[in-house]
């Protein structure tokens, strides 16, 4: 893939990638931007290995998801609990675009795999097969993650 092709394609995917990462990062815009930049650099460096038969956005989101996991592994000692997430939601750094803050806070409490599946399916509009490719889980596992995630969200939001 040539540089010009990459720039043209990445331009159309950049906004949805940033929204996905922002939600995964619990509204922490700086962390999401760092991960997005790292993911786009990794994608550019690996663009010669992109296989045209796959959807570019699925390939890019897989790189971004893996980059997110790498960042989380490095920052494991900075785990936040629900109280910290609520504090973040009320701070100046919170994303003002979140009209459904309660929902996003609830999503933030989900385990990583369920949170990723919910965000990719409902926010980014990916199919179960595409989520399976992005997260390296079976389609059956993705369906289970979606089901469990929906059940947990329903319980949290009914409280």
Summarize the model shown.
The chain has helices at 3-24, 29-45, 56-74, 82-90, 101-108, 112-123, 128-135, 139-158. With 159 residues, it is an all-alpha fold. The termini are far apart.
Give a topology summary.
Elements: H1 3-24, H2 29-45, H3 56-74, H4 82-90, H5 101-108, H6 112-123, H7 128-135, H8 139-158
Helix pairs in contact: 1-2, 1-3, 1-6, 2-3, 3-7, 5-8, 6-8, 7-8
CATH class: Mainly Alpha
CATH architectural grouping: Up-down Bundle
What is the chains' assembly state? single chain
Tertiary shape: globular
> How many structural domains?
1
Assess the beta-strand content as a share of residues: under 5%
What string gives the helices and strands in order?
Answer: HHHHHHHH
Q: End-to-end distance, in Å?
A: 50 Å
Major sheet details: none
Fourth-level CATH superfamily: PhyR, sigma-like (SL) domain
- Total count of helical runs of at least 4 residues: 8
Report the helical percentage: over 70%
Walk me through the structure.
The protein is an all-alpha fold and 159 residues long. The protein has one domain: Butyryl-CoA Dehydrogenase, subunit A, domain 3, CATH 1.20.140.160. It has eight helices and no strands. It is globular and about 50 Å long. The termini are far apart.
């Amino acid at each position: 893939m040539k540089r010009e092709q990459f720039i043209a394609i990445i331009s159309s995917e950049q906004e949805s990638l940033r929204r996905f990462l922002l939600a995964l990062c619990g509204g922490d815009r700086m962390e999401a931007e760092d991960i997005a930049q790292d993911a786009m650099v990794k994608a550019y460096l690996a663009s010669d290995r992109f296989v045209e038969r796959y959807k570019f956005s699925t390939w890019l989101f897989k790189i971004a998801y893996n980059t997110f996991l790498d960042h989380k592994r490095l920052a494991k000692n900075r785990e936040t609990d629900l109280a910290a997430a609520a504090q973040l939601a009320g701070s100046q750094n919170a994303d003002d675009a979140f009209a459904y803050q309660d929902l996003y806070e609830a999503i933030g409490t989900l385990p990583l795999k369920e949170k990723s599946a919910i965000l990719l399916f409902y926010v980014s509009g990916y199919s179960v097969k595409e989520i399976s490719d992005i997260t390296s889980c079976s389609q059956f596992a993705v369906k289970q993650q979606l089901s469990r995630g929906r059940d947990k969200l329903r319980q949290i939001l009914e409280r």
